[in-house]
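Lab notebook page, bench 4
Experiment: in silico fold of construct C2
Operator: M.H.
Input chain length: 380 residues
Purpose: comparison with the prior construct
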Amino acid sequence: MYNRKDKAIAFLMISPSLILLAIFVYFFIGQTAWYSVSDWGIDPATALKKGVEKNYVGLDNYHTLISSASDYEFRLAFISTFYFTIFFLSSCLILGFFLAFLLDQRIKGEGIFRTIFLFPMSLSFVVTGTIWNWLLKPKGGLNILPNKLFGTDPLEYKWLNSDTTLFKFEWLKGGTLFYLGIALFTFALFTYVAQKRNLSGFWVVIAGLVLWLISAAGFWDKIWVPIDDPVRDIGTYQGYGYSAALSGIVIAATWQMAGYVMALFLAGIRGISEELREAARVDGCAEWQVYTRIILPQLRPIALSAIIILGHISLKIFDLVYAMTGIDNKYVKVPGILMLKGFRSNEWARSSAVAMVMLFAISLVIIPYLWSNLRTEKQS
């Protein structure tokens, strides 16, 4: 056990880092939060004048992001980030596990293949974006690959400029979609807690019934902020959904991070006792059953860690998108691009509001994970 003197010395040693962290992280987070509820930049021409006043406007900037017909770009960016996260996580987990499965077969040259698969992670997102920007040119790279390999006509797909939108939905119906997401998450969380605390299934059913009653009452539709002006500019509005132009970015991001997931899964697989696998085979399990019933269940903590890390990366993705599409691509929008455009046009309050929304989204992913790890450490 540590005595008070040891704790005081330890605190003294880390105090410089705590002070710097408080100044350069939390102070600026607080400052950004203040700017997000001010009117700084509502008049871009005077935003940088000396002594300009910053008046408190409450949540007006957030209301504008969610409901203003003229600010549809933020909603497009937020939805694009959501879809990017889903496809990026899914492709990394599937491809990463598949590569780990192949390397687990004790193939020759395993070390070489492991290095090749893991190498892209050593590159920065800017380098990856530049490389894949070349590969995804409309008249080069992947589009001419079928012609080079099979002599067929080259493709004409616009990887980064496709105007196709999939999984479309109306923002006015966002209340229902938002409710469904919250309801599913809450029900899953309640079920998990009930299992951990040995609560009866009766309470799980009651929780589901309460959520259904809230949905039937239309509660979430009543609090959902509608679009201020239903008249939209058809020339610029593309509809909310998954922009096919994100596919190239998903491919590039997966190429870079799938090797990392492979390394995590491979380490987890190699950490499982070989005797356990042999016992399963002796009991009559086929090889695929060994993976589905023995290996995969024991890889859940690793998969969760990978989801948290990759989810954090995907929510704050900026450099890869910037390197591949720049800031003026109307088909690919992410919050980081909007923040950059806002800062360049002196819209400081609006850009700060975008930053705070993304900080909140990232916190929803990171804080439960850190809290769970802290509880695990205390219990051990």
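Observations: Strands lie at 165-169, 240-243. The chain is about 65% helix and 0% strand.
Next step: discuss at group meeting.
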